[in-house]
């Protein structure tokens, strides 16, 4: 490019930075006074020339800074299309006054023409993408450096997206015309050879078996290279949770078949994780849980986990085995076995359960699953006690749950945006103490999260459930509402049908809705305002008409892995005997 001297304007501006204190305290300040700069360029010039440090200690230092400031301002003006601008620093004689820069901006240049060299032999697809890229910057536009360089980056990406993995830019030739006040641009591209992806090579000495890594490959040998394919591969490898270091490199030398091998660079991480947590609420009681997990249990990226919980209302111990990518990427088998002991107002229950589930994603957001479970329980419930039946009910339930899940939320513990939707249908039958019952249990939920501002997130959740078939099933198959997981501000299970003694007995339908406004005040602290409403009853229409609501406020502490939650809720339409305030402490957002 060439710089041309043109007629200067007469405006004068002095910039003094953030504050006067900045000059003496090592803050941000302007080292010069500028004369001749138009108003529309003053803010950009100020931003470009602000520096961190103290005022110059000597005349020599002041002169050096003035010269550097002149060069910086010249570059800024050129970036805005003023290629003929001239910036002249005043001779500095003393450190008591700021040196002055005299500016002559001249006329702003436009783009006269845009050419791309070196791409005559690329594929038609690549040529079409280059033509599309050129639509983003057309002749006649102001010759702004940021837009000119952005087009260079876009041209390079379009070549890479067309299979030219080693494409390079050899720079931009810009010919400025003094007479026409314009610039002719030529982008010099070096596409290199068209790359077709070949075999994926895996490092030796890994605990993870090659079979468990090869299933992550997302191309057929001979497919054209694309950055998206390589990023998808990185995401798949990262999602296994097995590797601390992940690298993907394309071998520049093709094999005999003309394809370029893809080299994985992997460093395996720790295999074990131990976790623990505490929770407390005035309605649900106190609880503690602990977990142990062993990743890559058999070298197939599989996981063995043990989870234990001891709480006021329930205790359980569960062993889970998860085997991902069975036969194809994403297909996951989950098997579990566990024992549980629950003592609630609605029922007392002891049970042993064995279950297996197979899930298959159809894209990164949508997953279908199917499973089978055997659940042996011994329970008593207050509905039977009201009828004078005090004996324990021994039952075995066979169920075949089906599920559909849609999820675009990135951070499960603290969602900032996205949506979740779940639909579960569980057909089954139960047999035991004098009963044989068949049923279908349907449950659905929808959650949405919207970032209103940089610090404010709105969250909304709707849950609904329905029960079809015989009632003579284990009591935990029925629906209950009230408590920390559904409607904060009410006792656990209290928004459910009751027997003549006022004890909850469970309903055939459930409807809950919750809304929150989450404000992140700082890195470690946030606040929440929320409203919950819900009920369980004989059917959805009755549940909707009998819903009760509560209002609450919460505090969130963010230690780095997810929020620690403290909520206080009060009923908005309390019944006789309802407590005025309930407190909840747990980890993670409420939903």
Automatic annotation (TrEMBL):
<dbReference type="Pfam" id="PF01103">
    <property type="entry name" value="Omp85"/>
</dbReference>
<keyword id="KW-0812">Transmembrane</keyword>
<dbReference type="InterPro" id="IPR039910">
    <property type="entry name" value="D15-like"/>
</dbReference>
<keyword id="KW-0472">Membrane</keyword>
<keyword id="KW-1134">Transmembrane beta strand</keyword>
<feature type="domain" description="Bacterial surface antigen (D15)">
    <location>
        <begin position="296"/>
        <end position="591"/>
    </location>
</feature>
<dbReference type="GO" id="GO:0019867">
    <property type="term" value="C:outer membrane"/>
</dbReference>
<protein>
    <recommendedName>
        <fullName>Bacterial surface antigen (D15) domain-containing protein</fullName>
    </recommendedName>
</protein>
<dbReference type="Pfam" id="PF07244">
    <property type="entry name" value="POTRA"/>
</dbReference>
<dbReference type="InterPro" id="IPR010827">
    <property type="entry name" value="BamA/TamA_POTRA"/>
</dbReference>
<dbReference type="InterPro" id="IPR000184">
    <property type="entry name" value="Bac_surfAg_D15"/>
</dbReference>
<feature type="domain" description="POTRA">
    <location>
        <begin position="110"/>
        <end position="192"/>
    </location>
</feature>
